[in-house]
Amino acid sequence: MPYFRAALILCAALISTPVLAQPAPVSVALDWTPNTNHIGLFVAEAKGFYEEAGIEVEILPYTDTSAATLVANDVADFGVLGSVGLFTQRTAGADLVATYALVQTETGRLVFSADRDDIRTPRDLDGKMYAGFGSGWETALIGTIIGHDGGLGEFETVTLGTSAYEALANGTVDFTLEVYTWEGIKAERDGPAQRAFRYADYGVPDQHTNFLGTTGAYLAEHPETARAFISASRRGYAYAVAHPDEATDILVSANADSLLDRDFVRASLQALIDGHYLQAEDGTIGTIDPGKMEAMGSFLFEAGLLKDGNGVAVEAKPNFTTYYSNDYLGTAP
């Protein structure tokens, strides 16, 4: 009888004790091989921020399929979305919503060799050879930069992809586009020396170059999980800004197979910090600026780059406030 009574007491205790909820799984797709744009994700994972938030995050290996496509097709819950891709794919019908601005200002720039005495202002690019990546955005961007400086906006293009940087270095082409905080830092360290034009100085709206984003359907079905992921990721990026040496070691260690150069990664992160890309001078981190979204969306619309699912340029400007949300940031780190 004592054993029976003890068993009953144990059963009652088990029934009355709440079962701890299992961590919610979250997958996130990268837009490129691991780099400093992704550092906050790896920091949040390594420092236990995701675990504290009650989620289990899987950072998916990079593939040739864009993160936006993986997210829109429910292969990944979240992804690193490029700004232009967000606007164009969302307008074409993809269910995409930006929920965190990875950078607060544009990281891209137009670059050319520092020894080019024939290139002093953007209008000098008329008639020159551009090494490109195959998007209509590039044509609109460069044409605007040259035109803003009084040029015709006429230039030749050869599509080379990432080989553009080698072509620029050996003088095969005259100019290209790069991400300052990655390719630009590499050029500063290894040469050859470059000069550059910043987009926003020549008529192109400043923008958040990339975002963390998901689908509207995911946000509707898993609002608390989304909030936990974005808030913890935000905490990871804030930690990386405050502790750059440790954050560098975390990124390099977590991606040992990528053979990242630790000194280069550290220099890239410092550029992101010094340039107030990850965190603005006023302390803003992760917040999406409605003014930037409206300006860039309008620029793409007026350039005829926003098309419907049939590839036809939309006639009415979309409501860009539906393309993003700041509702999942949580409290500031």
TrEMBL record:
The UniProt record lists the keyword Transmembrane helix: no
Signal peptide interval: 1-21
Keyword terms of this UniProt record: Iron, Metal-binding, Pyridoxal phosphate, Signal, Thiamine biosynthesis, Transferase
UniProt record, GO biological process: thiamine biosynthetic process
The keyword Cell cycle is assigned to this record: no
Annotated catalysed reactions: N(6)-(pyridoxal phosphate)-L-lysyl-[4-amino-5-hydroxymethyl-2-methylpyrimidine phosphate synthase] + L-histidyl-[4-amino-5-hydroxymethyl-2-methylpyrimidine phosphate synthase] + 2 Fe(3+) + 4 H2O = L-lysyl-[4-amino-5-hydroxymethyl-2-methylpyrimidine phosphate synthase] + (2S)-2-amino-5-hydroxy-4-oxopentanoyl-[4-amino-5-hydroxymethyl-2-methylpyrimidine phosphate synthase] + 4-amino-2-methyl-5-(phosphooxymethyl)pyrimidine + 3-oxopropanoate + 2 Fe(2+) + 2 H(+)
GO MF annotation list: metal ion binding; transferase activity
Pathway(s) it belongs to: Cofactor biosynthesis; thiamine diphosphate biosynthesis
Matching Pfam families: NMT1
Residue span(s) of domain SsuA/THI5-like: 35-247
Subunit (UniProt): Homodimer.
Protein family: Belongs to the NMT1/THI5 family.
PANTHER family recorded: 4-AMINO-5-HYDROXYMETHYL-2-METHYLPYRIMIDINE PHOSPHATE SYNTHASE THI11-RELATED (PTHR31528:SF1)
Role description: Responsible for the formation of the pyrimidine heterocycle in the thiamine biosynthesis pathway. Catalyzes the formation of hydroxymethylpyrimidine phosphate (HMP-P) from histidine and pyridoxal phosphate (PLP). The protein uses PLP and the active site histidine to form HMP-P, generating an inactive enzyme. The enzyme can only undergo a single turnover, which suggests it is a suicide enzyme.
Protein name: Thiamine pyrimidine synthase
